[in-house]
Amino acid sequence: MPIARTDVDAVFPRVAALIADALARNPDEVRLDSRLIEDLGAESIDFLDIVFQLEQAFGVRIPRGQILEEARGPLSYEEFQQDGVITAAGLARLRAVLDEVPAARIATGLRVDDVAWLFTVETFCKVVLRAQAAEPGSG
Amino acid sequence: MAEPIWITGLGLVTPLGVGVAPTWQALLAGASGIRPIGRFDASGFAVRIGAEVPLGDATDAVAPRLRKFAGRQHGFATHAAAEALRDAGVAPTDTTAPRWGCALGCGQVTLDYDELVATAAAAAPQGELQPARLAAPCDPIAFARQQSIAPLALLATQFGLRGPLRAVHTACASGGQAIGSGLKMLRRGEVDFVLAGGTDAMLTPIGLAGFCLLGALSADNDDPARASRPFDRTRNGFVLGEGAGMMVLERADTARARGAPPYAELAGEGNALSSYRITDPHPDGRGPIQAMRRALADAGESPAAVDYINAHGTSTPMNDRSECAAIHALFGAAVDRLLVSSTKGQIGHLIAAAGAVEAAFCALALRDAVAPPNANLHHPDPACALPFVGAAPQRRALRVALSNSFGFGGANSSLVLRAAGAVA
Questions:
Q1: Residue range B369-382: average pLDDT?
Q2: Which of A67, A77, B154, B405 is most buried, with most CB under 10 Å away?
Q3: Cβ A22–B68 below 8 Å, yes or no?
């Protein structure tokens, strides 16, 4: 489950270039810890675009909504959230999966709908690495 | 009396140039925008000529953040809209944006050819279409781009228009009807400004194939500049073009208050359906007669007051004959004082943009007191006898101009423009 820093660094340049292109940003504005929505101005459709572009660029299949599914892990949907608000158990899972996000940002009251606000460029590097691990030989 | 509606800004992207000035100069100089097709390999088509806009990447005027949502026709509209707003010297602000409307005629908004190729590769990897693969792994942005609202949504987003938006899809009548729609928004008091016009970019393998299937195009591949010859007895079809025309409309009092000079008054619009056949015009021209009559009545003018008609004049055998019959039926003895030309001889047929570009030509004709020429009319068809402008533009004071656009499917649009300051 833990992803090696060197692996993240290896895919970062292509992921960053692709995100910069999708969001019409200068490549040097896109850092590993840049937040897609707050720092780079992503809209909902941009996430779909970026995931599609990552699939094309890395030759992998990334199911939509995969990050949340990873975070939920063995928890049932009811155990993960209640009335749209993520439970304590859910937050713990989320902190483990999104370990690139400062833990303080994954706080009580976080809504499922707002999880995308946490995503950074590193989040998408890890999405690619997990997809590659799931499909050995892709790349 | 209701306040006149003025045209205070124009923007054009045409086969004759990018911008109003280069287009208008080339039009009056008799230049042709029709050439062998260069943007894709047309060698396998019976028709290998077209009226291409001289822009490699048409999306360069689209804001970088929006560019991925823009195809070629969206790009043309953005170019023309930016020019029209600059020309009018006014743009929406946070305060005025809700009082800005937009009406755009646009054509067959569909997958770009390259997207179609990519979709085919993704969805039919072994040659057999797998419908589920249309959902993944296909490009979500391509889907967003092909929505019929997309060109309009881009204009609204880029220029910050927040009033009523109208998309008009009535084939070749779209541009004219969009401008008419803008006129109505202003008259009803819904808005203070309208950005109106039309855009189209059907000069693609798909668009060309479609019009080849309909047998509507001239195949005079060896003589592109002469291929489109409206009202000539040797005419044999239209030439497919692309481009956009946009204009800023506002009430005369608004324009005067901010010191903005008009090109012309947009005085009236008329629409009518032919309800006859899908692709054939009615031989008596009954839909066009009604559209022209309504537009003149709307402008408070009689047929005898019209000085110039920018005809639909596609250069197809049927359209030109039917349009001439309609003009004779409506104008009677008053045809003799008319000047008539079809600018499609030089720019081809811009489909959903045609009516908007040609209305802009009428505005320029009124401002400059000159009727654009008929570039290729050497052997007038006896069945199309009208007082046509010759191969050179004709200088004459013009007070009232009529712009006709008649569409596939039977939609007919006429616009009446009046020299600004002239009384009805």
A1: 96
A2: B405
A3: yes
Catalytic residue chosen out of the listed positions B79, B102, B169, B172 = B172
Instruction: Give the pairing type, strands B242-251 and B193-201.
Output: antiparallel
Contact B79, B244 (CB under 8 A): yes
pLDDT digits (tens, 9 = 90+) for B229-242: 999 999 999 999 99
Question: In whole angstroms, what separates CA B42 from the centre of its chain?
Answer: 24
B106 carries an active-site annotation:
no
CA dihedral B350, B355, B356, B362 (to 10 degrees): 120
The backbone torsions φ and ψ at residue B339, rounded to the nearest 5 degrees and listed phi first, read -120, 130
End-to-end CA distance of chain B: 11
- Residue with structure tokens 């509606």? B5
Q: Which of A18, A26, A49, A66 would best serve as a mutation to test chain B binding (most B beta carbons within 10 A)?
A: A49
Of B267, B249, B255, nearest to B401 by C-alpha is: B267
Taking alpha carbons only, the member of B77, B83, B79 closest to residue B102 is B77
CB contact under 8 A, A23 and B141: no
Q: In this complex, do A49 and B68 lie within 8 Å of one another by their Cβ atoms?
A: yes
Query: What separation in angstroms does the CA of A117 have from each of A44, A113, A121, B146, B265?
Result: 10, 9, 12, 28, 51
- Residues of chain B positioned with their CB less than 8 A from the CB of A48: 140
Residue of chain B nearest A54, judged by CA positions = B137
Q: What sign has the CA pseudo-torsion A85, A87, A88, A93? A: negative
> For residues B281 and B408, is the Cβ–Cβ distance under 8 A?
no
Task: Please enumerate in sequence order all residues whose Cβ is within 8 A of that of B176, keeping only pairs 6 or more positions apart, or say none.
Answer: B105, B198, B269, B354, B355, B356, B358, B359, B403, B404, B405, B413, B414, B415
Q: What is the pLDDT of residues B305-335, one digit of tens each?
A: 999 999 999 999 999 999 999 999 999 999 9
Closest residue in A to B65 (Cα–Cα): A24
Do A23 and B65 make contact, defined as CB atoms within 8 angstroms? yes
